[in-house]
Write a structure and sequence with these properties.
InterPro entries: G_CP_dom (IPR030378), GTP-bd (IPR006073), P-loop_NTPase (IPR027417)
Distance between the termini: 27 Å
Largest sheet: 6 strands, mixed
GO molecular function: GTP binding; GTPase activity
Radius of gyration: 22 Å
Number of domains: 2
Strand order of the largest sheet: 3-2-1-4-6-5
CATH architecture of the largest domain: 3-Layer(aba) Sandwich
Structural class: alpha/beta
Order of helices and strands: HHEHEHEHEHEEHHHHHHH
Main location: mitochondrion
Number of strands: 6
Subcellular location: Mitochondrion
Strand content: 5-15%
Pfam family, one: MMR_HSR1
Helix content: 40-55%
Number of helices: 13
Bound molecules: guanosine-5'-triphosphate, magnesium ion
CATH topology of the largest domain: Rossmann fold
């Protein structure tokens, strides 16, 4: 069953709404039921374990994705989290639209929730988060010999990456002699499967708990599910890359984003675009951050050129489009056209048997690595809807 749109989401643009409905038919996002099931068995057990440990936690860092500050909240845990000392860390701020971040901060402020945008890979932003954490703990720090800080959130929002950065900062500050290995971090959801503690301070002893990412068994509406998929919190195979890419294209077109790409690229066109015409086999690994190896210059130029090609192709199709993006059939036609031009822009062989799937995967990788720009997918709720 498709439930009603969440009360916080602004009324969806009609073309986009039609595509969302059409793309997913009448499937619901329910645990164990329907064609779409994103609540793997381990999540129920993990949720119970998290609830138990939450009772003992002195503070919770709730990690959300900056691109979807509301859709990445685990609604079922909210009542318990509301009752704790909590800081909401809006992670991956490097991928979100920086121009509206202040609105989100104001929004959480109006709900009396502490919120801080961070990038788990940036020491300075994690440092700011720790200052807030320390401030909120100051009275218990004086009282208790041992403190527990829990890090919770939906899958793939960067909980483990944050813990590694926190530990690095703590190791340099307190010389904690704990030789435990780093928390495992990975690009796909579901990397952390067990709760694990890391000591970050002495006197008082402070432990941070890494937890498996958990979703709610029933996602409240289809668009929330698609946003979670686009941000990488739900495995691609659950919804399918083609549907996720179709949703992304619908969002970009209805927002008119490709029209802005013209100005962006005008500045780049003269410089690099025709520089590297040599054959270069596309490898999604080129787009993944690799801390061990500095990026190869020709890889960087190749990816930049690829992005320019993609953005120009998207700009051209939208600028020349005669239909109305608010009309779902028109929008669907535009998206079909864009799948074709993207195939060329992404250098996918004409006859590739799974060309559409390959286009979708590559396009999603560009989006998820921020190569297409910074986006926030959730709308900030109107102030008068704040309860
Ligand atoms: N761009 C960007 N990527 C990040 C940031 N933080 C984490 N990541 C990446 O996001 C992916 C997921 O990070 P994890 O730390 O494994 O996420 P998690 O929340 O622990 O995931 P689960 O254990 O599956 O619940 C990894 O590829 C990280 O490198 C960030 O601030 N910005
Ligand atoms: Mg993890």
């Amino acid at each position: 069953m498709i439930e009603q749109l969440g009360k916080n989401s602004r009324k969806m643009r009609s073309g986009l709404k039609g595509i969302v409905k059409k793309g997913l038919g009448e499937m619901g996002f329910n645990a164990g039921g329907g064609a779409i099931n994103w609540f793997p068995g381990h999540m129920a057990a993990a949720t119970r374990a998290i609830r138990d440990r939450l009772k003992l936690a002195d503070l919770v860092i709730e990690v959300r994705d900056s691109r979807i500050p509301l859709s990445s909240a685990n609604e079922d845990l909210q009542p318990q989290l509301d009752a704790k000392r909590r800081v909401i860390a809006l992670n991956k701020k490097d991928l979100a639209n920086p121009n509206i971040m202040h609105k989100w901060i104001r929004y959480f402020d109006s709900r009396k929730q502490d919120c801080i945008p961070i990038s788990a890979h940036s020491k300075s932003s994690v440092q700011k988060l720790l200052e807030v954490v320390e401030f909120k703990l100051k009275e218990v720090i004086l009282r208790e010999p041992t403190l527990l800080v829990m890090v919770v959130g939906v899958p793939n929002v960067g909980k483990s990456a944050l813990i590694n950065s926190v530990r690095q900062i703590a190791l340099s500050r307190f010389a904690v002699q704990e030789k435990k290995k780093r928390a495992t971090v990975g690009p796909l959801p579901g990397v952390t499967q067990d709760i694990a503690g890391y000591k970050i301070a002495h006197k008082p002893s402070i432990y941070v708990l890494d937890t498996p990412g958990v979703l709610v068994p029933s996602i409240p509406d289809i668009e929330t599910g698609l946003k979670l998929s686009l941000a990488g919190s739900v495995k691609d195979s659950v919804v399918g890359e083609e549907r996720i890419a179709q949703y992304l294209l619908a969002v970009l077109n209805t927002r008119g984003t490709p029209l802005h790409w013209k100005h962006w690229n005008n500045r780049k066109m003269d410089g690099i675009r025709f520089e590297s015409e040599e054959k270069h086999e596309y490898n999604p690994k080129d787009l993944q951050p690799n801390r061990m190896k500095p990026p190869n210059v020709s890889d960087v130029v190749y990816v930049e050129n690829l992005v320019t090609e993609v953005q120009c192709a998207m700009y051209k199709t939208l600028a020349e489009f005669n239909g109305n993006v608010e009309d779902e059939n028109d929008l669907e036609n535009l998206i079909e056209q864009q799948f074709e031009v993207l195939q060329k822009a992404l250098k996918i062989p004409h006859k590739a048997s799974e060309a559409r799937l390959m286009v979708s995967k590559k396009f999603l990788t560009l989006f998820r690595t921020g190569k297409l720009g910074c986006f926030t997918l959730d709308d900030v709720p109107e102030t008068n809807t704040v309860s």
